[in-house]
Specification:
It contains 5 helices and 9 strands. By secondary structure, it is of the alpha+beta class. It has one domain. The radius of gyration is 25 Å and the shape is globular. The termini are far apart.
């Protein structure tokens, strides 16, 4: 009788190991897009919730004041209480309604209240320095959370993701405004809901609150024709400009089509429009840009808050004229189905 002496096999062969690695790689390749889609869906839902919260705040302001806040204001009554300088944006006015009442109570609506580099900076800078207000930031935003520039006295300010809608270029002459200083090439409308020193009531929105955009997403970089971010001196080119989310408008006058305001935009371009450049002529200049297009880090479009508090996602393919009609509060346009 012969005893068989067999060697026991331990571990994997090289081929088996390579097969296992290949299977794992395939599984990862299949799972990653699914995980990314889930994450983006969650971020888009959070962005929608942010806008709904802003809608509730705007309506609460209306309930208390009998009107909506100004899109941007100067420091002259009734939007401010004194002085003749750069006032505050709508984002400041609704602070009490997004659980930021302590900040609003410390805010003084005079002497360049919204201008961090102005005479009011001693009280403004500590309030905005490194401040994060979650409803003002979309999780999918490609824009840095904060920025600092040479003209804001060391205040590191949050970059917000949403802009007030002043109207559109088709109604640029409506409610002609003389409250702001010259920004050559920009077109500024008073035909929307949130514009310079506006005092719009919900009953003024005769086109229907469900048809009229109050606030729109602006959470992506302005981009060139090759989809690359256009560099600016202030990190990103948005309607808040280099002075931050608190900045409103001033009182020097130069006519309705060449005035300057911040944290509001007049619709002149399509959603996620490319190739405009850092250009005053296109209204997309970083320091005078009131025609910077709506944008987002979401795929294929951007979110909009309508006058009734509803939030809808508009695809980038939405016709420019349709967006302009939605930006008008009382133009009488009939929107396509």
């Amino acid at each position: 009788m012969f005893l068989s002496c067999q060697r026991q096999r331990k571990g994997f062969t090289l081929i088996e190991l390579l097969v296992v690695i290949a299977i794992i790689a395939i599984l990862i390749g299949l799972l990653l897009p699914a995980v990314q889609k889930v994450r983006e869906a969650a971020a888009r839902m959070q962005c929608s919730n942010n806008l709904k919260q802003l809608g509730i705040a705007l309506h609460a302001f209306h309930d208390g004041q009998g009107r909506l806040p100004p899109g941007c204001s100067n420091d002259v009554a009734p939007n401010g209480n004194g002085g003749n300088g750069w006032g505050s944006s709508w984002k400041v006015y609704i602070l009490p309604y997004i659980e930021q009442d302590n900040i609003f109570r410390a805010w003084q609506m005079n002497n360049n209240s919204g201008y961090v580099n102005g005479t009011n900076m001693s009280q403004t800078v500590p309030l905005v320095h490194r401040m994060t207000i979650k409803p003002y930031r979309c999780p999918s935003s490609t824009i840095p959370d904060f920025y600092i520039s040479s003209n804001n006295n060391g205040a590191i300010q949050m970059m917000t993701s949403y802009t007030g809608v002043a109207g559109s270029t088709i109604d640029a002459g409506v409610a002609a405004m003389t409250e702001c200083c010259n920004g050559t090439g920009n077109i500024v409308s008073g035909g929307g809901v949130l514009f310079a020193n506006s005092q719009v009531k919900l009953t003024d929105i005769t086109d229907g609150t469900s048809n009229t955009i109050m606030v729109a997403e602006m959470s992506d970089h302005l981009r060139d024709a090759n989809n690359q971010p256009i560099p600016g001196n202030y990190t990103a080119i948005t309607s808040q400009g280099p002075h931050g989310w608190t900045m409103g408008c001033a009182t020097s006058a130069s006519g309705a089509v060449n005035i300057r305001q911040f944290n509001c935009t007049t619709v002149r371009w399509s959603i996620n429009q490319r190739g405009l450049g850092n250009s005053a002529a296109n209204g997309s200049n970083e320091n005078t840009g009131m025609n910077i297009p709506f944008s987002s880090g979401h795929t294929g479009g951007a979110q909009m808050l309508f006058g009734d508090g509803g939030v809808r996602f508009l695809p980038s393919s939405t016709a420019l004229q349709t967006i302009q009609w939605m930006a008008s509060r009382s133009g009488g346009e009939v929107l396509p189905n």
